């Protein structure tokens, strides 16, 4: 018995993202802008400093400037230093965003001109730092205060706004501090007459699929899809121990069969999959299984991402080989909305 299940995941590597929201269209070149203030997730091709100096390759045998100790492949959303080439990145988490070592012997390193992306009618990411629309009322339907009010004790830097200015942001909902709760603004509390923070109701540009909530958390975000023969809440490890199911992990640091592998008692070795989950455009991925093997792949490609063998002998799964009656999805740092049939499916 062979079966197939489609998932939706997102892919950051598109040149232009066109997103439909409330009857309007945003066009943003994601190669040239960042979705968060630090730009840890940035994988675009900008390879010059803000001053126009060409960047040094992150991995080179004859560097003009020796890279700092501790910078390794795990610090790059591309997967490796080699794949990051000489593109602007932020492997050290600098506050001002992507940077690089320069090819000028007199300038060791400098920041790059990678501004915040701007979406005017909706938010692409969970925090919505990129939101630059006109909504100026908080969720309580209270008018927002001006960001550039000189009487305010704390004024955020202009670089924290997609408008590139507090003045241009006016009193509109923004997220200059990167609050994971989403765009917000200051409002005046009628009871205390004091200013306080309040979130705004800004819709997502897309509402179906799987994506990072916080784009800069690309390395820690994971999705776990459990396929089971029994309707019992359980972890992948428990399903494997009972012989009742398996678990597939999808993440930027590795994807594949993470519980129920026939190859070894503990977790199967995952296939490196940098960039498979991001904060950008939706894509379809699929799972197919049968004969004791399960395959994870991307729609439109022949070569699968991973093929793993799972235990289907002398256990519950062996009673009806290839038959998974229940599916559940969980994750860390991800947002999902999947078009699965509700019958026999649990979304936790």
Overview of this structure, please?
This protein has 348 residues and is mostly beta strands. It has a domain at 3-11 and 210-347: Jelly Rolls. It has three helices and 17 strands. The chain has helices spanning 81-84, 166-169, 236-242, and strands at residues 3-11, 16-21, 24-29, 99-101, 109-111, 184-188, 195-199, 209-212, 222-228, 245-251, 256-259, 281-290, 293-298, 306-309, 326-332, 334-337, 345-347. The strands form six sheets. It has a five-stranded mixed sheet, covered by helices on one side. A hairpin with a 7-residue loop joins strand 13 (293-298) and strand 14. The longest helix has 7 residues, at 236-242. It is flat, with a radius of gyration of 23 Å. The two termini are 27 Å apart. Mean pLDDT is 83; it is low at 8-27 and 341-348.
Concise overview:
The protein is mainly β. Helix content is 4%, strand content 27%.
By oligomeric state, this entry counts as single chain
Spell the H/E element sequence: EEEHEEHEEEEHEEEEEEEE
Name of the top-level CATH class of one domain = Mainly Beta
pLDDT below 50 for ≥5 consecutive residues: which ranges? 8-27, 341-348
| Count of strand segments | 17
* Beta-strand share of residues: 25-35%
Rg, Cα atoms, Å? 23 Å
> Whole-Å distance between the termini?
27 Å
The biggest beta sheet is recorded as: 5 strands, mixed
Compute the average pLDDT: 83
What is the CATH architecture descriptor of one domain?
Sandwich
Shape, please?
Answer: flat
Q: Remind me, CATH topology of one domain?
A: Jelly Rolls
In DSSP terms (H or I, runs of 4 or more residues), the helix count works out at 3
The strand line-up of the biggest sheet is 11-10-9-15-17
Global structural class: mainly beta
Helix content: under 10%
């Amino acid at each position: 018995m062979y079966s197939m299940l489609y998932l939706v995941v997102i892919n950051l590597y598109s040149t232009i993202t066109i997103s439909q929201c409330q009857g309007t269209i945003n066009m943003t070149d994601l190669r040239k802008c960042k979705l968060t203030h630090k730009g840890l997730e940035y994988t675009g091709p900008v390879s010059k400093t803000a001053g126009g100096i060409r960047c040094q390759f992150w991995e080179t045998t004859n560097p003009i400037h020796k890279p700092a100790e501790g910078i390794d492949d795990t610090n790059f959303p591309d997967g490796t230093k080699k794949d990051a080439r000489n593109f602007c990145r932020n492997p050290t988490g600098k506050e001002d965003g992507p940077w690089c070592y320069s090819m000028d012997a007199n300038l060791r390193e400098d920041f790059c001109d990678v501004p915040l992306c701007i979406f005017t009618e909706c938010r692409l990411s969970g925090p919505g730092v990129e939101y630059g629309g006109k909504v100026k009322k908080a969720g309580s339907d209270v008018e927002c205060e001006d960001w550039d009010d000189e009487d305010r004790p704390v004024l955020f830097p202009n670089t924290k706004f997609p408008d590139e200015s507090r003045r241009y942001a006016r009193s509109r909902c923004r997220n200059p501090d990167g609050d994971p709760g989403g765009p917000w603004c200051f409002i005046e509390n009628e009871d205390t007459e004091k200013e306080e923070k309040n979130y705004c109701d800004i819709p997502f540009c897309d509402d179906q699929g799987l994506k990072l909530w916080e784009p800069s958390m690309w390395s820690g975000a994971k999705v776990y899809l459990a396929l089971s023969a029994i309707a019992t809440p359980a972890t992948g490890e428990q399903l494997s121990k009972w012989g009742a199911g398996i678990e597939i992990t999808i993440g930027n640091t590795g994807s594949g069969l993470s519980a129920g592998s026939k190859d070894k008692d503990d977790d199967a070795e995952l296939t490196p999959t940098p960039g498979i989950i991001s904060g950008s455009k939706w894509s379809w991925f699929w799972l197919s299984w049968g004969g004791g093997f399960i395959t994870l792949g991307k729609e439109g490609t022949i070569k699968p991402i991973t093929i793993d063998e799972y235990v289907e002998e002398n256990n519950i799964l062996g009673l009806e080989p290839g038959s998974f009656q229940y599916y559940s999805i969980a994750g860390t740092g991800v947002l999902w909305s999947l078009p699965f049939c509700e019958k026999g499916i649990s979304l936790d």
